[in-house]
Amino acid sequence: MRAALARARLALVGLRSRLVVAFALVAVASALSTGALAFREARTGVLQQSQDAVIKQFRDNVDALAPGIPADPSQEELDGLVSQVARTHQSQGWHVLATYGGLRASSLSQGAFDLLTPELRRSVGTRPNAVFQRVSDHGYPMLVVGLPVAYRTSPGLPPALSGVVLYLEVAQSTEQAYVKAIITAIEHAALWALGPAVLLALLAARGVLRPVRALRRATRQMAEGHLDVRLAVRGSDELADLSRSFNDTAAELERSVTELRRLEAQARRFVADVSHELRTPLAAMSAVTDVLDEELPSLDRETADAVGLVSEETGRLIRLVDDLMEISRFDAGAVRLHLDEIDLAESVRRTLASRGWQHRVETRLPAPGTLRAQVDPRRLDVVVANLVGNALRHGAPPVTVRLGGPEGRPEGAWVVIEVADSGPGIAAAALPHIFERFYKADTTRTRSESSGLGLAITAENVRLHGGRLRVENRVGAGAVFTVELPLRRHSPVAAADGPAGGRS
């Protein structure tokens, strides 16, 4: 379910979705902006043409009737003038109003001309030209025209206003219908543009995403260790440059890793060869130091001290060579478990007793015979000895060993071995590296009895059993190493490349 949600989230915010949305937005924005410009021009043209035609008809009609208008018209004469103009254009829905001084004549039965604004009335009274204004009446567009009646008294002189003013109100419903049709056409054009835009976006996304997906697959393969993966380079655009850069990087990384692996293999062979070659002379030296140790009581003090030092350092060197040989076997994958069902508590007791630690370590072990498991006895002995020895060397008493297992031995249960000390604990910066080879948590300790490989070997032996090993500091003081081993038998696992490390 979580993977499906992650894929759905990726599809929503992925490059394909963003390209489709971007193309769609650009197409719609282009269509709308083009439509808006076209609409503005078309609307202006339609209204302008209608307005000019109405004003021209109104002026021609008034000019034709002007000679018959007396200088001081009466109410009846104004009514006749209005009636003539309105009747001539009755089919166009003209509403006409005439004023002269205090007289008013209207083609409307109620005589209401509410759309006449004061600005329009003032403009008509000051100039002999027609004045118009577009207004809205309950959402419907209306054209209002004011036209003063003027007489030309003599050639060369401007016409004189007669005082008679005619007003015209006419609805522009047809023009409004044209404007709505233009809007509908623009909306349809935007919708029709959206489909090709999405199609183009999908095609563009496919072209862009193909090398991106190939790059993602190649990156995953490289992360899995396939350093020989390469991308096919097509074209000369930015994606092709990216593919070439990836190929160059992969080739250089492959060369570097190959060289590192070669050097690492050489180093491992060198360690294994040196360790093997040292075993024979060290065996001879150990035999000699054993003889000298027997003669210590008969030697003078200085000679005895020198013999003791040689014997101690020879033993340390032998342990180091043995640890190096063991690590070499892990690296070569030559280690196999020899499983046997044993009493774990009795195995821990034997480990402590064989090294003389039974009086220095507190134990919390189950009764004999109550906790048995399939393990490699020799390697379990190494695990317990390394952890206890590490606690005794670098911790503080009391050192405690606890062995526990689940009651009823359920399927998939684990046996737990804990080794805890009461020392200062391990520095937080050292905890992530505590199982690395030759790692020393205390950098001031340049020499110690251990080889620095004890915890590395311990971690490898636990891993061979299919178990887990971890370390943490207790609240207060002291470090706790916890080993978890499966109670049921696991198939033997060969040691793989990848060393662990040591606290000592």
From TrEMBL:
CDD domains from the UniProt entry: HAMP, HATPase, HisKA
Gene3D superfamilies reported in the protein's UniProt record: 1.10.287.130, 6.10.340.10, Histidine kinase-like ATPase, C-terminal domain
Transmembrane segments: none
Catalytic activity: ATP + protein L-histidine = ADP + protein N-phospho-L-histidine
GO annotations of cellular component type: plasma membrane
Subcellular location: Cell membrane
Domain HAMP: from-to ranges: 206-258
Keywords carried by this UniProt record: Kinase, Membrane, Phosphoprotein, Transferase, Transmembrane, Transmembrane helix, Two-component regulatory system
Enzyme class: transferase
Domain (Histidine kinase): residue spans on this chain: 273-489
SUPFAM superfamilies: ATPase domain of HSP90 chaperone/DNA topoisomerase II/histidine kinase, HAMP domain-like, Homodimeric domain of signal transducing histidine kinase
UniProt GO molecular function: phosphorelay sensor kinase activity
Stored PROSITE patterns: HAMP, HIS_KIN
Main location: membrane
Protein name as annotated: histidine kinase
Species the sequence originates in: Streptomyces sulfonofaciens
Lineage per the UniProt record: Bacteria, Bacillati, Actinomycetota, Actinomycetes, Kitasatosporales
